[in-house]
Amino acid sequence: MSRLVIVSNRVPVPDKGGIAPAGGLAVALKAALEEQGGIWMGWSGRSSGEQEPQPLAQLQQGNITYALTDLTDTDVEEYYHGFANRVLWPICHYRLDLAEYGRKEMAGYFRVNRFFGRRLAPLVKPDDVIWVHDYHLIPLAAELRQMGLKNRIGFFLHIPWPPADVLFTMPVHEEIMRGLSHYDVVGFQTDHDLENFAGCLRREGIGDELGGGRFTAYDRIFKGGTYAIGIETAAFAEFAEKASTNKTVKKARESIEHRSLIMGVDRLDYSKGITQRIDAFERFILANPAQQGRVTYLQITPKSRSEVPEYEAMQRTVAEQAGRVNGALGAVDWVPIRYINRSVGRHILAGLYRLGRVGLVTPLRDGMNLVAKEYVAAQDPDDPGVLVLSRFAGAACELRGALLVNPYDIEGTANAMARALSMPLEERKERWKTMMDHLLEHDVSRWCRDFLNDLTTRDQCG
Ligand code: ADQ
């Protein structure tokens, strides 16, 4: 069996006791690596200042080698904060207004990908299969091909792929499209993303579809496919059930008392639609005065990318907005919104999801959204809560039992909250079961297997 080489911007390195950071993606990819043996390479998250980074730090755990490199301050600024997070992230989330192009940042992005390629190439054996993850590393295959590597190389994009009119506002869109053509399999979260990608190829005559999921562009043939990422459904459901005795979960349950809990859990990011969601909650309370004092909205939002000015500003905006709504609607014995800026352990999170009568997942645009899937997996089968889900999350293509909303329509989202809170038990159970059956069958291990099968089956691709 050939070895597997995974490359991602950050690597979930196990601690000294061999425990890897939790999370479905890390668990599934680690399992695949353990089965086949291999390497997981990426950025250490550290800077070497302006010094050339030391050689790769390698950590062996069983038959997995974790290979990490530092980056210089300039690299971190231009590649990571610059092009990846201030250009590709907003563009892929349809936010042209937030994209800040700069020639320096673009050059830094391609330079760091070349640097990753140079550090990785000496570790790769001829029959290794390479799987590259996410928007930070699109040009990596092209760099490896340039160095003569003929291995099977696959790419999976965790975030949405935008339509041509959006992508082509980026001055280097051609280089990005060309970069993708050097993979053997390019994977997206949804059919809609894949269609957008095909549209980008067609629009400027860059390439075309050959049928059977095969594409041609820049004299290469490759497979383009949809691989909706899942979670470790069965394990997550078990965490949630067991968490009912957890101290923090118990305290949360007692503090809610007789009230219904609406749960929101997101990284702090403009794509997640948190401010629109708070507006919708306010609208819901104003339109349903009988709910005053009878419902609590818990929003758990760890800070992310706080070095980027837009994220810092967003942190202030959300906190002020939650404060304003609490000031306007709250009572001496009722705080309508509890807003927490902290990360929570996965077991506790699972227990909190289970307490939620409503799971409110309303991103303006999201590749998949694992929170939606985790919320469903965590529910009590005899008394499940209701998922209110944005139609612009990739998960909406699969979770048919959710109440789908347009997060830009504040009144519509408020109405969905009211409907979710009054939904009869039989309907809740029916909707939940449809979603849970799907999630059990399409879990993260299956996602991993499906992608790797396509990548290693030669006639799938060029
Ligand atoms: P993200 O944008 O990070 O992922 P998401 O899919 O929701 O979004 O995953 C977030 C993860 O972080 C979930 O597993 C969640 O449990 C965890 N999390 C969030 N808040 C937390 C908190 N307060 N404490 C602890 N854990 C918390 C990107 C794409 C998504 C895509 C995923 C996977 O943007 O669209 O679904 O990758 O492909």
Could you explain the architecture of this structure?
- This protein is α/β, with parallel strands linked by helices and 462 residues long.
- The protein has two domains: 4-227, 3-Layer(aba) Sandwich (Rossmann fold); 233-441, Rossmann fold, CATH 3.40.50.2000.
- Helices cover 43% and strands 19% of the residues.
- The protein has 16 helices and 16 strands.
- The protein has helices at residues 24-36, 73-92, 103-120, 140-146, 164-167, 173-181, 191-203, 233-242, 247-256, 274-287, 309-329, 346-355, 370-377, 410-421, 425-441, 444-456; strands at residues 4-10, 38-47, 57-61, 64-71, 129-133, 152-156, 185-188, 207-211, 214-217, 220-226, 260-265, 295-300, 337-340, 358-361, 386-390, 403-405.
- The strands form two sheets. It has a ten-stranded mixed β-sheet, sandwiched between helices. The protein has a six-stranded parallel β-sheet with strand order 13-12-11-14-15-16, with helices on both faces.
- A hairpin with a 2-residue loop joins strand 8 and strand 9 (214-217).
- The longest helix is centred in the last third of the chain and has 21 residues, at 309-329.
- The protein is globular, with a radius of gyration of 23 Å.
- It starts with a strand and ends in a 6-residue tail after the last helix.
- The mean pLDDT is 94.
- Bound molecules: adenosine-5'-diphosphate-glucose.
- Adenosine-5'-diphosphate-glucose binds next to helix 13.
- Adenosine-5'-diphosphate-glucose binds at residues 23, 158-159, 229, 265-267, 300, 302, 343-344, 349, 366-371, 374.
- Pathway: Glycan biosynthesis; trehalose biosynthesis.
- It catalyses: D-glucose 6-phosphate + UDP-alpha-D-glucose = alpha,alpha-trehalose 6-phosphate + UDP + H(+).
- Belongs to the glycosyltransferase 20 family.
